[in-house]
Specification:
By secondary structure, this protein is an alpha/beta fold. The chain has one domain: NagB/RpiA/CoA transferase-like (Rossmann fold), CATH 3.40.50. It is 39% helix and 20% strand. The chain is built from eight helices and ten strands. The strands form two sheets. The chain has a six-stranded parallel β-sheet with strand order 1-10-7-4-2-3, sandwiched between helices. Strand 5 and strand 6 form a beta hairpin. The chain is globular and about 45 Å long. The model has no long low-confidence stretch (mean pLDDT 92).
């Protein structure tokens, strides 16, 4: 018997209720295959869509599904120059859907992210008609303080390691130094308490561990 799955299912149902209490729509899809099916169900064909830099949504094949399907996808990963990249970041505010993950979620239904440039947290806050989060349950923290600590000590150093063009202290030794170094990817701390527009924010919780 998979006791971890049993526990996660119980936990997910509690989280779904807490998200709904905050005007957000939430689902539990244990596997990546179920996540993709639910996302396809939620996003109508023909929708305009783009995404942030999330590793999770790329690793499960979500961005490829929308890129290859009958959607108006703006894929920032295929740009030819910095100008085109910046254009897609700004166009995100006018689209039907924005895809992302979260750096952490809390037991009472907060969504916590830390950004370097701020384009992701800006789009989460305002602009796109719908925001779809895909979040592994291993990103769950007790409360907002614990969530921020998780992001600073785990997610941010791993994220920093992905980029060749930054030289932050956490990239050197894997530890957060609360720095103001050039290239810092922790410039904006963002907490979603509620969705100002009911169900604009949607969350798919998954058992499979993706992202960091």
């Amino acid at each position: 018997m998979d006791y971890k799955h049993m526990r996660n299912e119980l936990m997910a149902q509690k989280l779904i209720k807490n998200f709904e209490r905050r005007n957000m729509e939430a689902y539990y899809c244990p596997t990546k295959e179920e996540v993709l099916a639910k996302a396809k169900e939620l996003v109508p064909e023909g929708s305009s869509i783009t995404w942030g830099g999330s590793v999770t949504i790329r690793d499960i094949g979500l961005t490829k599904m929308f890129d290859d399907g009958n959607y108006k996808a703006l894929d920032r990963d295929k740009v030819k120059n910095p100008e085109e990249y910046q254009s897609i970041l700004r166009k995100a505010f006018e689209l039907d859907w924005y895809l992302t993950s979260a750096n952490a979620i809390t037991e009472d239904g907060l969504i916590v992210n830390i950004d370097g440039l701020g384009n992701r947290v800006a789009a989460i806050t305002f602009g796109p008609k719908n925001v779809l989060f895909v979040v592994s349950l291993d990103k769950l923290a007790k409360d907002a303080e614990s969530a921020v600590k998780r992001v600073r000590s785990i997610a941010a150093p791993i994220n920093a390691a992905r980029f060749d063009n930054i030289k932050t202290p956490c990239k050197v030794d894997g530890l957060c130094h609360n720095c103001n170094a050039p290239g810092c990817i922790c410039n904006f701390v963002h907490i979603v308490r509620n969705s100002g527009i009911k169900n604009r924010i949607k969350i798919i919780l998954m058992d499979d561990n993706y992202g960091f």
